[in-house]
TrEMBL record:
Protein name: site-specific DNA-methyltransferase (adenine-specific)
UniProt cross-references to PANTHER family, sorted A to Z: SLR6095 PROTEIN, TYPE I RESTRICTION ENZYME MJAVIII METHYLASE SUBUNIT
InterPro entries noted in UniProt: D12N6_MeTrfase_N (IPR022749), DNA_Adenine_Mtase (IPR051537), DNA_methylase_A-5 (IPR003356), DNA_methylase_N6_adenine_CS (IPR002052), Restrct_endonuc_T1M (IPR004546), SAM-dependent_MTases_sf (IPR029063), T1MK-like_N_sf (IPR038333)
Alphabetical UniProt keywords: Methyltransferase, Restriction system, S-adenosyl-L-methionine, Transferase
Record GO terms (molecular function): DNA binding; N-methyltransferase activity; site-specific DNA-methyltransferase (adenine-specific) activity
Catalytically driven reaction(s): a 2'-deoxyadenosine in DNA + S-adenosyl-L-methionine = an N(6)-methyl-2'-deoxyadenosine in DNA + S-adenosyl-L-homocysteine + H(+)
Species of origin: Dyella psychrodurans
Sequence ranges assigned to domain DNA methylase adenine-specific in this UniProt record: 135-446
Residues in N6 adenine-specific DNA methyltransferase N-terminal domain copies: 10-117
Family membership noted in the UniProt record: Belongs to the N(4)/N(6)-methyltransferase family.
Ion transport in keyword set: no
GO biological process: DNA restriction-modification system; methylation
Class of the enzyme per the UniProt entry, highest EC level: transferase
The keyword GTP-binding is assigned to this record: no
Length: 798
């Protein structure tokens, strides 16, 4: 059976537990990723003729396993495994597996490294069979590890990784997916870090393209090289060195030019010009637009990108917001860039997205091809769309999709989100590109109506502002409000009845019914698509097709936010559907339960029951054994009631001098012993009654527990045996309809619930705001003041 993505991730992350404590995350990542690399290339290329990766004799993963337990394991890994691999494949700066400061010494190092190697011996981690065309399972696992390493490395050491969500946006907005590409198409990242951004852009192309990257840090450039291989791009060219002072990709004496260039350079690099004279740059990067200030390197990287683009090239660069508005030399560069028409657009991102800094950044999108006909700069302010994820913010799937959709369509329908800034408007703002000058994205303040506060009544303007609801349910407005005076209304129902009035109104009920029917139509169609899936399909393409189709399906529906619906599906995909899809793609519609065997500290195995990943037991039970489950549930309810009675009796009779107060622990044996002691004592009648009541309830509880256990075992056996009788069609029905689509339907219902909840909440806010007019408040205050004065007078008289 194929390994689930979630299990692969957890297995690899578990390897990190073996190293934590001895070193920083930015260091132990190197050890884990190198072992992952060795395992992968050994599985995929060992024994292959003309393989793009050379595995020297004695340097495979099998040879690495043979070193487990050896007293000099660290030194042997360096000399026999990583050293030869690095030399054969030009991989610099492999981590030192014999570093006692990080890995411990003697037996501690031997155990730590042996255990670490053992993690990758898991038979399920067979990477030779774990890659379907177009579905880079291992590459995704690497991405997962890099994100976690960056999170744990902190601000000072997390710059090696560009968040995948931002990389995906860049890949989509530079247009490589809409371009006819070939192996001759070139993509370049002058500050490639571990290569994640470069790979995302390459993945967006319809064919294999040629990747180039340069990275200043030698260890990180080694990671990038391994990353290329792990992502099946072994021919990518990764160079090590300072891009600004020593660019490695040249065409004679000039910079080599590329079709696409992307970068996430270090923000505001204060040492960018060390070793470089900007006024006499040998590559003429600053001749046309001006030299950046010596202590602010953002534009140096952007100008390097522009110089590295072909005449029809496209590019994008992640930079801090300061490049949009800072003055002096940077203002002159910005003006020249705008006048040349090279800036196609600007996308403002949320703060705290990146691992090296918490400041907000933006994506500058460059387009040389259409520079002469540029009619403005398209701006997107996406700073408000994100979710908190631990110490960082993270873009959701819906945020990514919306940014890409709006930018690529040049959609100005929401002026609070995006606009096209004309050359005249930009010039009027003195070439300041600060997004807030062009897009007012902050939330609109809720206005307070003075007359409403003075005289009472809800301003009709506030009611009118809920026009989206009244467009769908026009009569609902009359059902909820009645006229008070010109321009003001009051609630026509009791405040407590607002929610009920909305839910029960014929027009709102009709809206819900229409939405249910609309979903049912989509559900019917997508069920056919799901049931047509055969082993070997591409899960990544499946979710793109299904999710994009769902987004478009709900795009024009009232009151429902299509991107929220889309997000529900993507969340469920990440949570469950993705693993299911990979299982089906690898094994087909097969549902075989398996035993869960766990080992205790002594290595003894213990059977913890059984499970089935694709088709969990509750689905089998709900479909085929509902009556048995109902019987079990009824007995569980009885058991809970009896247990509650026992608990209440013990609580009521545990006080001082009460029937159950003398027990250290109330047990069957202790109660029986006490009954024998007092059953003939006429003064203990009440106590005896309590003890016998407890004993009777305890007996009933024991009987019910046994009955529940027997029923549960019987149901468990029925469910387990049912799997062998399931046909492929049965499995498809259970997985697709009872598992996948049932969950999606539940999530969609939550969106419909949100519609009514938001309307209820808003009306409640308005009612509460204007419920008590100022004269009433004044009169009440005067009344209370009079009472206080009267009390003070009495106190003085006394």
């Amino acid at each position: 059976m194929a390994i689930k993505k979630s299990e692969l991730y957890s297995s690899l992350w578990a390897s990190c537990d073996l190293l934590r404590g001895g070193m920083d995350a930015s260091q132990y990542k190197d050890y884990v990723l190198v072992l992952l690399f060795i395992k992968y290339i050994s599985d995929k290329y060992a024994g292959q003729k003309y393989a793009p990766i050379t595995i020297p004799a004695g340097a495979s993963f099998r040879d690495l396993v043979a070193l487990k337990g050896k007293p000099d394991i660290g030194d042997l890994i360096n000399k026999k495994i990583t050293g030869p691999l690095a030399a054969a494949n030009k991989l610099a700066d492999m981590p030192d597996f014999n570093d006692t400061n990080k890995l411990g010494s003697g037996p501690e190092m031997v155990k730590r490294l042996s255990d670490l190697v053992a993690v990758f011996e898991n038979p399920a981690l067979d990477f030779s069979k774990n890659r379907a065309d177009g579905d880079d399972i291992l590459g995704d696992a690497y991405e997962y590890l890099m994100r976690h390493f960056a999170t744990e490395s902190g601000k000072s050491k997390g710059q090696f990784y560009t968040p995948a969500e931002v990389s995906r946006i860049i890949a989509a907005v530079i247009g490589i997916g809409n371009t006819k590409t070939s192996h001759d198409t070139t993509v370049y990242d002058p500050t490639c870090g571990s290569g994640s951004l470069l790979l995302k852009v390459g993945d967006m192309a319809h064919t294999k393209v040629t990747l180039y990257g340069q990275e200043k840090d030698s260890a990180t450039s080694g990671l990038a090289r391994m990353n290329m291989i792990l992502h099946d791009n072994p021919t990518a060219l990764i160079a090590q060195g300072n891009t600004l002072t020593d660019p490695k990709f040249l065409d004679g004496a000039a910079l080599k030019t590329f079709d696409f260039v992307v970068a996430n350079p270090p923000f505001s690099d204060k040492r960018w010009s060390t070793g470089l004279d900007p006024l006499h740059d040998p590559y003429a990067r600053f001749d046309t637009f001006g030299a950046p200030p010596a202590k602010q390197g953002d534009y140096a990287y952007l100008l390097h990108i522009i110089r590295s683009l072909k005449s029809k090239g496209k590019g994008a660069c992640i930079l801090p917001h300061g490049v949009l508005f800072r003055g002096n030399a940077e203002a002159e560069i910005r003006k020249n860039l705008i006048r040349h028409g090279y800036i196609k657009g600007i996308i403002g991102l949320p703060a705290n997205l990146f691992y090296g800094t918490g400041i907000p950044a933006c994506i500058i999108v460059i387009d040389k091809e259409n520079a002469r006909t540029r009619e403005g700069i398209f701006m997107v302010d996406a700073s408000q769309g994100f979710i908190k994820d631990g110490p960082k913010n993270r873009l959701r799937e819906q945020d990514i999709h919306r940014i890409v959709d709006v930018f690529n369509r040049q959609d100005e329908s929401d002026p609070r989100y995006a606009c096209m800034a004309s050359p005249a408007e930009i010039e009027k703002n003195d070439y300041n590109l600060n997004l807030s000058r062009y897009i007012e994205s902050s939330a609109t303040e809720d206005t307070q109506d003075i007359e409403g506060h003075l005289r009472g009544g809800i301003p009709f303007a506030d009611v009118k502002a809920m026009a989206d609801y009244w467009a769908v349910c026009p009569a609902l407005k009359q059902a909820l409000f009645k006229s008070l005076r010109t321009g003001y209304v009051e609630l026509a129902v009791d405040k407590a009845a607002i929610k009920t009035t909305i839910y029960q109104h014929p027009q709102f009920a009709g809206f819900i019914k229409d939405m249910d029917a609309y979903f049912a139509k989509w559900r019917k169609q997508v069920t056919k698509n799901f049931k047509a899936l055969e082993p070997g399909f591409h899960p990544k393409q499946l979710i793109v097709d299904i999710a994009d189709g769902l987004l478009k399906y709900y795009e024009d529906k009232p009151l429902i936010h299509a991107y929220d619906v889309y997000q529900h599906l993507m969340d469920y995909w990440a949570e469950t559907m993705q693993d299911d899809a990979y299982l089906v793609a690898a094994d087909g519609w097969v549902a075989k339960p398996y035993r869960i065997i766990e080992k205790d500290k002594k290595g003894k195995e213990k059977d913890k029951g059984w499970t089935c990943d694709l088709l969990p037991k509750p689905l089998i039970v709900a479909r085929h054994f509902a009556k048995q489950q109902a019987t079990l549930d009824a007995k569980l309810t009885e058991l809970e009631a009896i247990s509650n009675q026992i608990a209440e009796l013990e609580e009521d009779q545990s006080g001082e001098d009460l029937a159950l107060s003398g027990f250290d622990k109330i047990t069957v044996a202790a109660v029986k012993e006490r009954i024998r002691e007092v059953e003939n004592d006429p003064e203990s009648v009440d106590e005896l009654a309590v003890l016998r009541a407890w004993s009777r309830l305890n007996g009933l509880e024991s009987q019910l527990k046994k009955k529940v256990k027997d029923l549960d075992a019987e149901l468990d056996k029925l469910a387990y045996n049912r799997y062998a009788k399931l046909s492929v069609d049965d499995i498809k029905t259970l997985v697709i309809e009872d598992k996948w689509l049932a969950r999606i339907a539940t999530d969609l219902q939550s969106e419909l619930d949100r519609v009514s909840q938001n309307l209820t909440r808003r009306i409640g806010e308005l009612v509460e705001r204007y419920a008590t007019p100022l004269p009433t408040l004044t009169a009440r205050m005067a009344e209370l003041q009079a009472k206080v004065d009267a009390h003070l007078a009495k106190m003085e008289a006394a």
